[in-house]
Amino acid sequence: MSSLSANNSQPQPDSHVSIVTTHLLKFPHILHRHRVDIFLPPGYDSSPHQTYKVLYVNDGQDMARLLMRETLEKLYRLQQLEPIIVVAIHASHDRVHDYGVVGIPDAHNRGSKAHEYEQFVLERLLIYMEHHYRIRKGAPNTAISGVSLGGLSAIDLAWRNPTLFGKVGVFSGSFWWRTDDTDWRAQQASRIMHKVVRESQKREGLKFWFQAGTADETSDRDDNGVIDAIQDTLELIDELELKGYRRDEEIVYVQVEGGKHDPETWSSVLPDFLKWAFAPE
Fold first, then answer.
1. How far is the first Cα of the chain from the last one, in angstroms, to the nearest whole number?
2. Domain segments of the chain: what residues?
3. 198 vs 90, 117, 156, 192, 195, CA distance in Å?
4. Suppose 162 and one of 72, 170, 203, 247 were both cysteines; which one would form an S-S bond, judging by CB atoms 3.0 to 4.6 Å apart?
5. How would you list the strands of the sheet with 53-57, edge to edge?
6. What Pfam families does this protein's entry cite (predicted)?
7. Cα angle 125-24-66, degrees, rounded to a multiple of 5
């Protein structure tokens, strides 16, 4: 047997993900800076002519707990993910005001700065990425995601800007966000994202990925035996279907049995979301 035939194993693809950190001013007249961690795919520096799709992620400070780097590298090794750039936006000290639905604060005036956060993402961050990194522009090449309240923010940004974002992923989304806390009927009727979708036109081309866990919480405001986290997610999907979106084609729902409102649950399904959003072509 020759030495060549004795060593016929296939070389493993490069899977190393590098992280670049930058700080961007929220606005020229505001001193606060958002920290942004940029996850660059294998071969980024050695392939100067290649361009990449992009995933923007809210709550970027939690990427280590979500195992973002490890998950990306594993999927690259398995060749189950095309090379992408992940832009992880750290939440500010005003998280409960930055995140939410633009123009509609909740019953306790939370989410009051959602418009300012949208301006930062659209007018500062996206432009910065276009100028400094080799990204592919346009909705078909761009996704956004988030967990909990960051997930509510992500779907609001995508819904308001469908020419910029083509896919959105929401893990345990805070779809209970509401304008009236009087009683359970008022709470249910005033859920903000449900109302926004109900009173809007369909966003052609936009696709949705939702996750909820059966142990996300224990609250069941209408005592129907379904926790609010699941009910709110499923009823938002119902609103989307009424707009003409199709299950499995434009909407994916993943329910995690025993899944909690925590990074361990979200990291367990992160590979499913990434493969859905950026499967190799």
1. 39
2. 13-278
3. 31, 24, 13, 10, 5
4. 203
5. 18-27, 30-40, 84-89, 53-57, 142-147, 167-171, 207-215, 251-260
6. Esterase (PF00756)
7. 75
Tell me the pairing of strands 251-260 and 167-171: unpaired
User: 137: which 2 tokens?
Assistant: 């522009």
Residue 136's identity, in one-letter code, is R
Per-residue pLDDT of the chain (281 residues; tens, 9 = 90+): 333 334 444 555 678 999 999 888 665 555 567 899 999 999 999 999 999 999 999 999 999 999 999 999 999 999 999 999 999 999 999 999 999 999 999 999 999 999 999 999 999 999 999 999 999 999 999 999 999 999 999 999 999 999 999 999 999 999 999 999 999 999 999 999 999 999 999 999 999 999 999 999 999 999 999 999 999 999 999 999 999 999 999 999 999 999 999 999 999 999 999 999 999 98
Angle at 192 between CA 250 and CA 107, to 5 degrees: 155
**Other residues' Cβ atoms within 10 Å of the Cβ of residue 207:** 21
